[in-house]
Amino acid sequence: MTDQAPDYPGERLGLPREGSGSIARLGRRVGALFVDYGAAYLISGFFGWDPLAILAIFAAIQIVFIPTLQGSPGHRIFGLRLVRLDGAWTGLWRPVVRTLLLIVVVPAVIWDADQRGLHDKAAGTILLRA
């Protein structure tokens, strides 16, 4: 084992530095989050813009679209996909765990050297460029 820091996020995981299959960078992640949260906010207008409705709709968007499209609408618009560490389908429970931790916010803003948030680490997932 070496103490040398990786040259780029994802190197320790055997991922490419850039392009398809590389770690999703902060700008794309934030853009995708704004798209998904914005959609949830707009849809919540049918419920009087209730803050709990916004969170529930945001969670539903994540939980429904991640297993079906390998990412939320925001992820797909920004050219991202969510997979397990081994590249396989996320399944049904991983998006639920990931989303619940994402809503709490704190796990999503604590990252490791590979730019994986605690919510992704707990779910065993990784957000990659498509």
What do these coordinates show?
There is one protein chain. 49% of the residues lie in helices and 8% in strands. The protein has six helices and two strands; from the N terminus they run H-H-H-E-H-H-H-E. With 130 residues, it is mainly alpha-helical. It has a two-stranded antiparallel sheet.
Q: What strand line-up does the widest sheet have?
A: 1-2
The best one-word shape is elongated
Described by strand count, sense and barrel closure, the largest sheet is: 2 strands, antiparallel
Rounded to an integer, what's the Rg over CA atoms?
15 Å
User: How many E strands?
Assistant: 2
Order of SSEs, N→C? Answer: HHHEHHHE
Ends apart, CA distance between termini: 31 Å
Q: Report the average pLDDT across residues.
A: 93
Q: Helix tally? A: 6
Provide the β-strand percentage band: 5-15%
Into which percent range does the helicity of residues fall? 40-55%
Protein structure class: mainly alpha
Low-confidence stretches: none
Summary of the model, kept short:
The chain is mainly alpha-helical.
Write the layout of secondary structure elements.
Elements: H1 26-43, H2 51-69, H3 73-77, E1 80-84, H4 93-104, H5 106-109, H6 118-123, E2 125-129
Antiparallel strand pairs: 1-2
Helix pairs in contact: 1-2, 2-4
